[in-house]
Design brief:
There is one protein chain. By secondary structure, the protein is α/β, with parallel strands linked by helices. It has a single domain, classed as Nucleoside phosphorylase domain (Rossmann fold, 3-Layer(aba) Sandwich), CATH 3.40.50.1580. 31% of the residues lie in helices and 25% in strands. It contains 7 helices and 9 strands. It has a 5-stranded mixed barrel. A hairpin with a 2-residue loop joins strand 3 and strand 4. It is globular. The structure holds hypoxanthine. The site of hypoxanthine (HPA) has 13 residues, from strand 5, strand 8 and strand 9.
């Protein structure tokens, strides 16, 4: 999307929804963020926003919904674009650009991921504490701006607060390093072995590029993985997209609880 299209899309979004959002959430495959405490203030399809592309992947809706959660205006974007669908990298960043143009400075990114660490079981939620970019897509910026990419800045104080809050509330939350690959095929046993050796605990097809792009725009980001399947480098077993969607929708409750707790306690 060109800058003028992003600005126009953000203007239409604000006009349609009537209030300015302060927090953005991008939801991954199969996950719906709809806590009982929240009141919907309206919904806009991406196709109604000028210049926005729409995902063709099953399990990805394509709309933005404004929620009022105890007085906080949260814009939940369901459905993102993936490079494997054939979209340009700049299009894959359209949600971050939109949220930024709408005035949002904090974004929570979620994804469905394969669990590489032995500790994980399907349904676990993990806070992403570090990332590996194996997309080989080049610079995270659209052009060199003369200053280094701030992608390495991890807000450790925020991560500590999140982990402490969940521990105090007895909410199970794992943590781990997430690796983004291009997909769309799932990993071979040799790739699983390689990813583990590289230090990855989770693998998926999104998030890292979005998170880095958001950081380069000066936004605060945090990201969560929902472990939809575990990966073995010894037993050959194929992962299916339907399995990923099934687990994501049943484990979504836990992720909703975590995000709601962080928002209502104003940790983010
Ligand atoms: N690999 C890559 N992406 C994924 C997986 C996986 O096993 N599960 C959900 N998204």
């Amino acid at each position: 999307m060109q800058q003028h299209e992003v600005s126009l899309a953000a203007r239409v979004l604000r006009q349609r929804l009537g209030v300015d959002p302060t927090i953005g959430i991008i939801t991954g495959s199969g996950f719906r963020f709809c806590p009982l405490q929240a009141r919907s203030m309206g919904r806009v399809s991406y196709s109604d926003l000028p210049g926005m592309d729409v995902s063709s992947v099953a399990g990805h809706a394509s709309h933005a919904e404004m929620l009022d959660l105890h007085g906080r205006h949260v814009l939940v974007c369901s459905g993102r674009l993936h490079a494997y669908e054939g979209h340009e990298h700049t299009s894959c960043m359209q949600l971050i650009d939109l949220l930024h143009a709408a005035g949002i400075r904090t974004v929570i990114i979620t994804n469905a991921a394969g669990g590489l660490h032995w500790r994980y079981v399907p349904g676990d939620i993990a806070l992403i504490t570090d990332t590996i970019d194996l997309t080989f897509l080049g610079s995270t910026r659209h052009g060199y701006t003369g200053s280094p990419d701030p992608c390495l800045l991890v807000d450790q104080d925020l991560q500590t607060s999140i982990l402490e809050t969940c521990a105090q509330q007895h909410i199970a939350l794992e943590m781990g390093t997430y690796c983004q690959v291009l997909g769309p095929s799932y990993e071979t046993r040799a790739e699983i072995r390689m990813l583990r050796r590289l230090g990855a605990d989770l693998v998926g097809m999104s998030t890292v590029r979005e998170q880095r792009h958001a950081r380069s725009l000066g936004m605060t980001t945090l990201a969560f993985s929902m472990v939809t399947n575990t990966l073995s480098d010894t037993v050959q077993r194929s992962v299916t997209h339907d399995e990923v969607l099934d687990v994501a929708s049943s484990a979504g409750h836990q992720l909703s609880t975590i995000i709601t707790t962080l928002l209502t306690q104003e940790i983010v």
